[in-house]
Amino acid sequence: MKHEDRKAAINAYKDRDPALGIFAIRCPSEGLIWVGASRDLDKIKNRIWFTLRMGNAHPKDLQCVWNEQGEDGFGFEELERFDKDLIDLARQRLLKERRDHWLEKLAARPV
């Protein structure tokens, strides 16, 4: 890849709009689900998995199950994606409402 092409690809990545939404982390062997909201669904899994590998993830119950089951015992699922054009106040309200909905629906724990 040429230097100019690489630079253009990096700039395009930086200029993209982050994906707003709700996600779930599942541990099928334990029957446990954690649900969270993110302002960037494309990055949240990597961030959470990194903190779990380092041993300092929150919530602590997620970290404990990760320590017992290992990375292969977990899955990540995108539950909902929202319109990027929402104003900030509407984003915050929508994320909270939809996260609470999924927590109840899946009998999940919050991330």
What would a concise description of this structure say?
With 111 residues, the protein is an alpha+beta fold. It has helices spanning 3-15, 41-54, 60-69, 88-106, and strands at 20-27, 32-38, 75-82, 109-110.
Essential attributes:
single chain, about 110 residues, alpha+beta, GIY-YIG endonuclease, four-stranded mixed beta sheet, 4 helices, flat
Tell me the layout of helices and strands.
Elements: H1 3-15, E1 20-27, E2 32-38, H2 41-54, H3 60-69, E3 75-82, H4 88-106, E4 109-110
Parallel strand pairs: 2-4
Antiparallel strand pairs: 1-2, 1-3
The total of helices stands at 4
Structural class comes to alpha+beta
Mean pLDDT: 91
CATH architecture descriptor: 3-Layer(aba) Sandwich
Rg estimate, integer Å: 16 Å
Give the class-level CATH name.
Alpha Beta
CATH topology: GIY-YIG endonuclease
The SSE string, one letter per element, is: HEEHHEHE
- The helical percent reads 40-55%
| Rough outline | flat
Please give the largest β-sheet: 4 strands, mixed
3D architecture notes:
By secondary structure, the chain is α+β, with helices and mostly antiparallel strands. The protein has a single domain (17-110), classed as 3-Layer(aba) Sandwich (GIY-YIG endonuclease), CATH 3.40.1440.10. Helices cover 50% and strands 23% of the residues. The protein contains 4 helices and 4 strands. The chain has helices at residues 3-15, 41-54, 60-69, 88-106; strands at residues 20-27, 32-38, 75-82, 109-110. A 4-stranded mixed β-sheet has the order 3-1-2-4. It starts with a helix and ends with a strand.
